[in-house]
Amino acid sequence: MKHLLSTHNLAREDAIAILDIAEDMAQFGHRDVKKLPALRGKTIVNLFYEDSTRTRISFEAAEKRLSADVINFSAKGSSVSKGESLKDTAQTLDAMGIDAVVVRHSSSGAPYLLAHSGWIDVPVINAGDGTHEHPTQALLDAFTMRKRIHGESSRGRGLDGVRVCIVGDILHSRVARSNIWLLATLGASVQVVAPATLVPGAIAQWPVTVTHSLDEALAGQPDVVMMLRIQSERMKDAYFPNPREYSSVWGLTAERYARLNQSTIIMHPGPMNRGLEISSEAADSPQSVILDQVSNGIFVRMAVLYTLLTGAKGELS
Amino acid sequence: MSSRILITNASVLGGKLENLLIADGIIALRNAAADTATDQVIDAAGAIVLPGLVDLHSHLREPGFEQSETVLTGTQAAAAGGFTTVFAMANTNPVADSAGVVEQVQRLGDEAGYATVRPIGAVTVGLAGERLADIGAMVESRAAVTIFSDDGKCVHDSLLMRRALEYVTTFGGVIAQHAQDPRLTIDAQMNEGEVSARLGLNGWPAVAEESIIARDVLLAEHIGAKLHICHLSTRGSIDIVRAAKARGVAVTAEVTPHHLLLTDASAEQYDARFKVNPPLRTEADTLALREAVADGTIDIVATDHAPHPSDTKDCEWDHASFGMVGLESALPIVNETLVKTGKLDWVGVARVLSQAPARIGQLDGARELAQGEVADLVIFDPTFERTWSVADLAGRSSNTPYTGIPLAGKITHTIRHGYLTVDDGVVVAAETVAGHAREALRG
Predict the structure, then answer these.
(1) What is the pLDDT, as a whole number, of residue A313?
(2) B9 with B76, same domain?
(3) B137 and B110 co-located in one domain
(4) Least CB-packed of A142, A171, A247, B53 within 10 Å?
């Protein structure tokens, strides 16, 4: 594995290997001195064409804990705003002799182009591209589910038989896409819940079941309920009438939260719209793992960087 | 114009071998004697002789976008592809919405001499879809425009489209519609389907084309006007056109070579050379389009030759330009998708790539390679095997999607008005061709 661009073709054994290395990273993460020398002398560029404080900080923390040298490159205040092309930027970075690129881009496929166009010859990690994929988010979500369900016996395991319900804007969500492919690979069964306007027409060909009723989905008592962020600009494009209606039909309200089993895990990739797709009662409940997702994100990203930059597979030596 | 060319072992439209004498710009003699005195002999053994191809849909980019193509370079690409006539779309800068621009384009074509250039006029001023362009003036101009199109944009306003169809009827012309509902295709990037959903690229649904075609054939029927559908791309569009023709509506339709060959799976690598409008559809669509050409529902194959500079393709998919070059590869693709598959014989190829587009564009001449006809013809060796590369291109831009794909068939000679524009697979020098063109114009 040279790049991490998508979870669509990620083999089960590779995915589990990353999750297991993340377990090792988590062990270090709980020590007083969190830093490992694994990537000392390596230079990693965080190439962020789209604002994302959370994801960039998470990657930066992961890189620094592995002792890599970190360069942050954001579209604002860079040559990009002067109209430099992705190709020229990539070739410039290549000429500087960097060792890996973490890229966030509003264009679907931009990481794929960086990895395959020949402009630059280093590992490329997709930190979210357009409405395509966000593979490290799916890996950290899987890690979080596995940890909550299997605890100390997580290593080497998938998510076989786990029932996951993903709720919200499937059509535009790169988080949903990456989760759907990875969860299927790890053996989970996925149900998506959304109004028909926010589900791709071709979803019948995806490894999921679809329902338009959140109440019906929750009545099935899923093991995991993952709420997606809903963007208010979708209203202008007539995907749904208004936030009140969205919240009442597809929101994880306090009332719906109260009906869940106490073992049901509540997830959200953040940032949350409290009171829209998720109530504070649900988000702040003991069943919520939303802050675990944030912590685990660093461990999983460390595992991905370590795997791609050192060629390691399986146990962290 | 004294040059006499004898084509020996000529299989005219796939018929039995004969010798063909070209002299004084016309087909002087069919079944000529093998020892006829000439200046040049071309042995066409193993090749097919077809009437010069007519492209109803080219973007020559001049004036305004000369970094992509000019009338000269575009018609060189045309000659390389066996075309002797090209209709030049109106989306230049300035737009071809006035007599001045269409006359300029026509003059540039006449001077270059590689192909007869017939300008297409815009339907609306600046392609803005708001008010009619100077249609009468363009008809009456020296360019004598017969086809009007806002191609690249759809004439989506129903009332304006109705008026355009009616008004053009006044002059005996035809509207060529780029069928795309703009509201259903906001920021659309590729065919809406399984691939677009997985790749996270905004979908361009088939219904956005079909709903406009359905409306327009009803308008044409109501008014009694002629309508031409550009680059038809979906199964559903075929059904609408087939039903309309059965009712007697004066509708004609074209398909591009790329929609006959390529599918939306081409987008998997985010390689923007495959980004085109309308987008590449599914395999089921390509197969249906081939059948529709065979049964006559689709009248013609037209290239939608759309040159772009490399930097507008060598970038993120959603930042890239729509379109691909297509003049040089059209006949090999028709060979691959329609001839080798048994859908068309060479008489059929001559119909869809020469006679029918000429009729829709109201060109003179029957294009049957009869004795006395203007000598516009192409010699094509359908057995020549090659893997397509940018070296097969002759225009200014290299945005071909076919590199690395086997495409059989080579245009060995193109003859326009009795003189060679392509000789033994090589485009003849510009000065030579321009000299012949001046002679031909003097008559």
Answers:
(1) 55
(2) no
(3) yes
(4) A247
What are the angstrom distances between the C-alpha of A288 and each of A90, A144, A222, A252, A279? 40, 11, 14, 12, 11
Active site members of B: 304
Nearest CA in chain A to B268: A109
C-alpha dist (Å) from residue A26 to A49, A65, A183, A223? 29, 11, 21, 24
Please check whether residue B366 lies inside any domain of the structure.
Answer: no
Q: What is the pLDDT of residues B421-431, one digit of tens each?
A: 999 999 999 99
Indicate the burial class of B425 (C-beta count within 10 angstroms; 0-12, 13-18, 19 or more). Answer: middle
Q: Which domain holds residue A162?
A: 135-292
pLDDT recorded at residue A314:
44
Give the dihedral of Cα atoms B136, B137, B143, B144; nearest 10 deg: 30
> For the domain that residue A204 is a member of, what is the CATH number?
3.40.50.1370
- Is there a single domain that holds both residue B191 and residue B302? yes
Handedness of CA A25, A27, A31, A37 (dihedral sign): negative
The CATH number assigned to the domain holding B71 equals 3.20.20.140
Range(s) of the domain holding residue B205 = 52-360
* A288 inside domain: yes
Residue B289 lies in a domain: yes
Q: What is the pLDDT of residue A234?
A: 74
ipTM: 0.94
Same-domain status, A237 and A259: yes
Joined together, the tokens standing for residue B171 give 């002059």
pLDDT tens-digit readout, B364-393: 999 999 999 999 999 999 999 999 999 999
Mean pLDDT of all residues belonging to chain A:
93
Residue of A nearest to B319 (CA): A107
Query: Which CA distances in Å does A113 have to A176, A279, A283, B204, B269?
Result: 22, 39, 37, 22, 8
Residues of chain B above pLDDT 90, percent: 98
CB of A214 within 8 A of CB of A167? yes
Tell me, yes or no, whether A34 lies in a domain.
Answer: yes
Task: Answer whether B208 touches A (CB < 8 Å).
Answer: no
3-state secondary structure A153-212: HCCCCCCCCCEEEEECCCCCCHHHHHHHHHHHHCCCEEEEECCHHHCCCCHHHCCCEEEC
Mean pLDDT over the full length of chain B: 97
Report whether the peptide linkage leading into residue B94 is cis, meaning its omega lies within 30 degrees of zero.
yes
Q: Where are the alpha helices (DSSP H) in chain A?
A: 12-29, 53-65, 86-95, 110-116, 135-150, 174-185, 214-219, 233-236, 243-250, 254-258, 280-283, 290-310
Looking at the structure, tell me whether residues B342 and B401 fall in a common domain. no
How far apart are alpha carbons B70 and B89 in whole angstroms?
A: 12
Same domain, A21 and A157: no
A116 with B269: Cβ contact below 8 A: yes
Residue A71 near residue A46 (C-beta atoms within 8 A)? yes
E strand or H helix at B345, and its extent? none
pTM of structure: 0.95
Question: B192 and A117 in contact by Cβ < 8 A?
Answer: no
How many domains does one find in chain B?
Answer: 2
What are the pLDDT digits (tens) for A115-146?
999 999 999 999 999 999 999 999 999 999 99
Chain B environment of A205 (Cβ under 8 Å): 194
Over residues A246-278, the pLDDT tens digits come to 999 999 999 999 999 999 999 999 999 999 999
Q: Does the residue B367 lie in any domain?
A: no
Residues of chain A in contact with residue B311, where contact means CB-CB under 8 angstroms, are: 85, 87
**Domain-ending residue, one of B329, B360, B391:** B360
Name the phi and psi angles at A167, rounded to 5.
Answer: -120, 125
Which chain A residues have a beta carbon less than 8 Å from that of B200? 108-109, 129-133, 174, 177
d(CA B226, CA A278): 57
